[in-house]
Amino acid sequence: MHEIAIVNHLFEIINEVSKKENLSKISQVNFLLGEMQQIVPEIFRFAFESAAENTIAQNAILNIEIVSIKGQCNSCNKICDVKKVFYCSFCGSKDLNIINGNELIIKSIEGE
Amino acid sequence: MRNVLDKNQDKADDIRQLLKQNQVVMFNFISSPGAGKTSLLELLCENLAPEYNIGIIEGDAYTDRDARRLIKYNLPIIQINTEGGCHLDSNSISGALAEFDLNKLDVVFVENVGNLICPTAFDLGENYCIALTSTTEGDDKPTKYPMLFRKADSIILNKIDLIPYTNFNINSFKADLQKLGVNIPLFEISCMQQAGINNVLDWFKVIIESK
Questions:
Q1: Which CATH architecture has domain A2-9+26-111?
Q2: How far is it, in rounded angstroms, from Cα B159 to Cα B188?
Q3: A95 contacts B181? CB cut-off 8 A
Q4: H-helix or E-strand containing B131?
Q5: pLDDT in tens, A23-36
Q6: Contact yes or no for A104 and B181 at CB 8 A
Q7: Domain that holds residue B203
Q8: Do A2 and B4 touch (CB under 8 A)?
Q9: B96 FRET partner, CA 20 to 30 A, in B55, B68, B134, B169?
């Protein structure tokens, strides 16, 4: 349900950027969504479209790029995919530093 | 490239700074509804209030029922109603902290809104996050909510007295935590029976003493 809250934060940034860049219409928002965040893309998109109504972002395309979870092993230093088990898939170490999967990042905002 | 929660993060960092200046340690309690957050807070207040000055921030979607349960301890309590919102954020905590006389406090306990997903995305500026779960919810919570258990600094498993009446398997619970690479203190307690609470109290005391 925090999809709505995240979208509200997203719109704060959209408004800030559009003022700064003097944009009157937002056409596309490119968003990186990490799998760890447990955000449902469909709900996120629905929340975005609802929030965009009657704003400069109405009809803007929300492009969601899902970022899978990756960890860097502190023992063997290799980078591995993390699927449910947070172990290094190369050496079996549990000492993993999660380097991808937590993203809630606006990659870019397009408009005119 | 910009993190959507930048502003929340900035405010959370300010809060940590403010807490440090005032030598206050803040704990964020996250659990599902009904796991026993308020019961745990009752236990903590009962046992820690004689030694430490405690402030409480109560997050709740609509009511002040939890706060009213804690009034008997005569501690400063700030109620935050999120009006249906599923989590607290650093902005609401910042407002609540401003109502305390932080100089006079050692500890702030924050009871988040009952939810295992949303609160984990929002740093409140706390020093420690506690994942509270209970045996009646099932032993699959670590697998279903990895972000919470990886974020937490300790896990409190409540309602262990009810294990005989559930299919909760403590070994699979622990094995699932292992799979998440989670290696933090796990306390098995029953708030109702006051079982296993000494270890929990000691954990809090050591942290508060070393602030």
A1: 2-Layer Sandwich (3.30)
A2: 8
A3: yes
A4: strand B128-134
A5: 999 999 999 999 99
A6: no
A7: 2-209
A8: no
A9: B134
Classify each residue of A63-95 as buried b or exposed e, where b means 16 or more C-beta atoms within 10 Å of its C-beta.
eeeebebbbbbeeeeebbebeeebbbeeeeebb
- By Cβ distance, the residue of A1, A86, A98 closest to B118 is A1
**pLDDT, tens digit, 9 for 90 and up, residues A47-102:** 999 999 999 999 999 999 999 999 999 999 999 999 889 999 999 998 999 999 99
CB contact at 8 A, B187 and B154: yes
Reported pTM: 0.94
In chain B, the number of structural domains is 1
Query: Cβ of B147 and A38 within 8 Å?
Result: yes
Q: What is the residue type of A12?
A: E
Kindly state whether A107 is in contact with chain B, defined as any CB-CB distance less than 8 angstroms: yes
Which residues of A, range 86-105, sit inside 8 Å of B by Cβ?
Answer: 86-87, 94-96, 98, 104-105
Q: Where are the domains of chain A?
A: 2-9+26-111
ipTM of the complex: 0.87
| d(C-alpha B119, C-alpha B129), whole Å | 11
Name the 3-class secondary structure at A1. coil
Amino acid at A72: Q
Of A36, A96, A105, the CB nearest to B3: A105
